[in-house]
Every structure is written in structure tokens, then in C-alpha cells.
């Protein structure tokens, strides 16, 4: 069927639900397993420095295979690839739940990554194809809700499943969801045509090496103390060399792995850069907030999830609203407002303290979630508005890859800043504290200790570490605020579609 015929799918609503179940299942697995790692470590007999391969193997496998989505979809048909991906991901999830050793778990997580890599780009391309242009904003709102809310809810759901049942249910939960998605796609998605095209193995090899080495470097850098480790140096050099070779090969090959037409669309390129910047902020702050609530403020897992839930609710409300606003309001204006709200929410987070209640986290989370929701939908809609339909699957895969790389870089960046700032802040605070400091002397009298005793020195060191850690988190939020503000000028690279309600979308000259 042609893209025009796909808009006449009889069960469009059911197909939309099925595709969203598939993508939510896959996106959840990028974060849901994090909180279960301690339980897995004991059950699988893994060491502290090896259990992280449960996360690394999934991320790296998914990143390497994701660019293949467009070529495989053309070779076997998009509907067949979708069904194979959902079935394979569901089976791999079941195998992960039954794993008896770390080796088995890593192998099954690799399978999860391989089969799950295509789910996000396929779902985006399908939602664009089965909806007429005037509904693309609402379609991207639905897709964006799953992409952005699922990572926020993942740690909460994973913690609840681990505490209430067992860590294996973090993976078993995918089985009923995957089954429903498979049946929905099988009965509602029409067959798509196959299109034979040559496969640029050299280009794919260079791109795969770049993505794999980069993801390994970002994921293992903190654990290995970054560039003091020979492994990180080798992975960085491999990533840089592979990227250079990929660019040179793509510029000279007759049929490069990624069609060059994609990069001639200014809106798509600008939206991809935007996605990279927003992904840095989205998952980085998602990774920072739970440790603050649990380690500094002492919240249990369930309470942490309830406090963070309003952020996801804000995102969903914004996406439902913006899907309709796109018909009447310039999407670039919506993006500016969204980035402003995101920066304002992050600015509010720079005022966090260890003894505050949950209200500042709730209202800043809602503001930031609402802002990100306003950015994500118009950015995706405008980015794909001027692309030819036959390039949607390929471009959606690249779009998702850029989003994943941005998320990985964001998490690594805040981890580096956090670790180093804790040490610096602790040293600066400690050098100002002596037994004769008024605050120290008052604290010693309050707890009935001698200010010069070694026991009280331990208490002061704990307090100093807590304050130094909180300051380091605040510094990270400030950094994310600057990243959000730095993305604002990118709005000028976007061209407003002249119309979304009629015929082909033609960009304005502005």
C-alpha cells in the first residue's frame, strides 16, 4: 500500500494503540531495570563492576541495530518487521526473567536490544503514515507521550515490581503488553510494499562501530574514571575514527547507507539537533531526581514515584493540548514557550535544599514536564512535515538514534559534573569548619558532644558530605538550564509549514 492509501486504514485507532503499546514497552526497558540491579546482583551472583552490563548490553545493541530499521523495513516489509520486532522483544523479555546467570542475562538483554531497536522509529513512521497531514500534530502528541513519559515512570514501576514481587517481574511485565501489541498490529496493520535497494555494508560497519564505541565509552566512563582508563581512551579513538570514516565514505559512495536526501531537509536537520539537546535535558534530570529523593531526603521508592509522577502528568497534558494548538499557532512559538518553561523549572530546581518538603519538586517537575511536552510535539511534527513519505522509516530511525545518543551524553555529563563537584564542594566546605566555628560549636552543644572529639568530627563530616552532594546536584540543574537556553536560537533554523490542513506541506521562505 502507498502512504496515501494508509490513511484509509479501517482500524486506525486500534492500530495506534497497538503501536504505542509496543513503543512504551521498549522505552520503559531503558530505565525500568535500573532500580532492580541490586536484587539482580545477589540473585545472579554478579560483582558490582559487572552487573552494569545488564544495562550496557541493551543500550549498545539497540543503538547499533537501530539505523538498520529503514533498510530491513524495505527488504521484508514494514508490517513484517514490526511483528518480528514485537515478538522477538517479548520473547527476549521472558528469557531475561528466567535468566540464571549474568552471562545468560547479558545475552538475553542483547537480544532485547536487537529486537527492540526498531520499535520506536517504526511506531513513529506508522503513526505519520496512517494519519492525514492535519492530524500529524495529534499523532506526534500520542507518540511523544509514550517516548517521554515512559522513562519517567520506569524507575517507579521497576521499584514497585521489585519490592512487591521479584526483580524478574520487571521483564515478565512485558509479556502481556507485547502479546496485545502483536495481536493488534497483526490484525489491523495492512501489508506494506517491499522495496529492493542495495545495502552499504561498509557504511553500516563504520556507523555501527561509531555508535557502539561511543555508547560503551559513555556508559562505562564513570565506572572506569573516564580518560584515566585505557579502555575509555581506545573506545573514544575508535568512535572518532569510525565517525570520520563514515562521513568520508557517505560523501563518496554511490549508494550510501543513509540516503543523503534526508540531510537536505532543513527542518528535519534542525529538529534532529533540537531532539539531541532536549534529550540531554530529559533523561539527565530523570536520572538526577530519584537519588535526591531517596538518598538525601530519605523517601521510600513508592513515595519517590508519587512525587515524580506529576512531571509525567504535566507532559501528557501539554502533549494533548499542543496537538490541537498546532492547527492555529506557529509551532516555533510553541517551542520557544516550551523551552522557556523548561528553563524556568530547572531554575527552580537550583533552589533545592536537603530539608525542603516535596512541594518544590512537584511544581518544578510539572513546569518542566509541561515545557518539554510543548517542545517535543511541534518539533517532531515540523521535522517530518517536509520529508517525502518513502524516507519516513529511515529518517525516524536516525531521529531515534540521535535522541538516544543525546540521552546517553546527558546522563554521562551530569554524572561527571556531579562526582567532581561533590569532591570540590566537600573540600571547600571542610576547610571553613573548625572546632572554633560558631556553627560547629552550637551543633556540638545541641547533640551533647565535645566539638573537638573524633566522634563529633564524624558527624560533621556526614553533614558536610550531605551539603556538598546537594550543592553538586544544584550545579547539575543549573547546567541543564543553560543547555535549554542554548537551544533557543535553533528555533530560527526551523521553517513554518504554510499549511497542515491541505495537501502537501510547503515551507515558507522565512
UniProtKB/TrEMBL annotation:
Keyword S-adenosyl-L-methionine attributed: no
Membrane-protein topology: Multi-pass membrane protein
Name recorded for this polypeptide: EmrB/QacA family drug resistance transporter
TM regions (residue ranges): 12-33, 53-73, 80-100, 106-128, 140-161, 167-187, 199-218, 230-248, 268-293, 305-326, 333-349, 361-384, 396-418, 477-494
Natural source organism: Pleomorphomonas carboxyditropha
Primary localization: membrane
Localisation per UniProt entry: Cell membrane
Matches recorded under Gene3D superfamilies: MFS general substrate transporter like domains, Multidrug resistance protein D
Gene Ontology cellular component list: plasma membrane
Gene Ontology MF terms: transmembrane transporter activity
Major facilitator superfamily (MFS) profile domain mapped to chain residues: 15-499
Classification via Pfam families: MFS_1
Stored InterPro entries: EmrB-like, MFS, MFS_dom, MFS_trans_sf
Alphabetized UniProt keyword annotations: Cell membrane, Membrane, Transmembrane, Transmembrane helix, Transport
Assigned protein family: Belongs to the major facilitator superfamily. EmrB family.
Regions annotated as coiled coil: none
Amino acid at each position: 500500500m502507498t502512504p496515501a492509501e494508509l490513511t484509509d486504514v479501517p482500524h486506525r485507532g486500534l492500530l495506534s494503540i497497538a503501536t504505542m503499546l509496543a513503543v512504551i514497552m521498549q522505552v520503559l526497558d531503558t530505565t525500568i531495570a535500573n532500580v532492580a540491579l541490586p536484587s539482580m546482583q545477589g540473585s545472579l551472583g554478579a560483582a558490582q563492576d559487572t552487573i552494569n552490563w545488564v544495562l550496557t548490553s541493551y543500550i549498545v545493541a539497540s543503538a547499533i541495530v537501530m539505523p538498520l530499521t529503514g533498510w530491513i523495513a524495505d527488504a521484508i516489509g514494514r508490517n513484517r518487521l514490526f511483528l518480528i520486532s514485537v515478538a522477538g522483544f517479548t520473547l527476549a523479555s521472558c528469557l531475561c526473567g528466567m535468566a540464571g546467570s549474568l552471562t545468560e542475562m547479558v545475552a538475553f538483554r542483547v537480544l532485547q536490544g536487537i529486537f527492540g531497536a526498531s520499535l520506536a522509529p517504526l511506531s513513529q513512521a506508522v503513526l505519520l503514515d496512517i494519519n492525514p497531514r492535519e492530524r500529524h500534530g495529534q499523532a506526534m502528541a500520542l507518540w511523544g507521550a509514550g517516548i517521554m513519559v515512559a522513562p519517567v515512570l520506569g524507575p517507579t514501576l521497576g521499584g514497585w515490581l521489585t519490592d512487591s514481587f521479584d526483580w524478574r517481574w520487571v521483564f515478565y511485565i512485558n509479556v502481556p503488553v507485547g502479546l496485545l501489541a502483536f495481536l493488534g498490529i497483526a490484525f489491523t496493520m495492512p501489508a506494506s510494499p517491499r522495496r529492493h535497494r542495495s545495502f552499504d555494508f561498509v557504511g553500516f560497519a563504520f556507523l555501527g562501530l561509531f555508535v557502539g564505541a561511543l555508547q560503551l565509552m559513555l556508559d562505562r566512563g564513570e565506572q572506569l574514571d573516564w580518560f584515566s582508563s585505557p579502555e575509555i581512551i581506545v573506545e573514544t579513538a575508535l568512535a572518532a575514527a569510525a565517525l570520520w570514516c563514515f562521513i568520508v565514505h557517505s560523501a563518496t559512495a554511490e549508494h550510501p547507507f543513509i540516503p543523503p536526501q534526508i540531510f537536505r531537509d532543513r527542518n528535519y536537520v534542525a529538529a534532529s539537533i533540537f531532539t539531541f539537546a532536549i534529550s540531554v535535558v530529559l533523561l539527565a534530570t530523570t536520572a538526577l531526581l530519584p537519588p535526591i529523593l531517596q538518598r538525601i531526603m530519605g523517601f521510600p521508592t513508592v513515595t519517590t514515584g508519587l512525587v515524580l509522577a506529576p512531571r509525567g502528568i504535566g507532559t501528557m497534558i501539554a502533549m494533548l493540548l499542543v496537538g490541537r494548538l498546532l492547527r492555529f499557532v506557529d509551532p516555533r512559538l510553541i517551542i520557544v514557550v516550551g523551552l522557556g518553561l523548561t528553563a524556568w523549572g530547572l531554575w527552580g530546581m537550583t533552589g533545592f535544599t536537603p530539608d525542603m518538603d516535596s512541594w518544590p519538586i512537584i511544581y518544578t517537575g510539572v513546569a518542566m514536564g509541561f515545557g518539554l511536552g510543548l517542545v517535543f510535539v511541534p518539533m517532531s511534527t515540523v521535522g517530518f512535515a517536509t520529508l517525502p513519505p518513502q524516507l519516513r522509516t529511515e529518517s525516524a530511525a536516525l531521529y531515534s538514534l540521535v535522541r538516544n545518543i543525546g540521552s546517553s551524553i546527558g546522563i554521562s555529563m551530569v554524572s561527571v559534573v556531579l562526582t567532581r563537584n561533590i569532591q570540590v564542594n566537600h573540600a571547600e566546605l571542610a576547610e571553613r569548619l573548625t572546632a572554633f566555628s560558631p556553627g560547629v560549636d552550637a551543633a556540638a552543644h545541641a547533640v551533647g558532644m565535645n566539638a573537638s572529639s573524633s566522634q563529633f568530627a564524624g558527624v560533621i563530616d556526614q553533614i558536610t558530605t550531605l551539603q556538598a552532594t546537594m550543592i553538586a546536584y544544584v550545579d547539575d540543574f543549573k547546567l541543564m538550564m543553560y543547555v535549554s537556553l542554548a537551544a533557543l536560537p535553533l528555533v530560527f533554523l526551523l521553517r513554518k509549514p504554510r499549511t497542515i490542513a491541505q495537501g502537501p506541506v510547503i515551507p515558507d521562505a522565512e
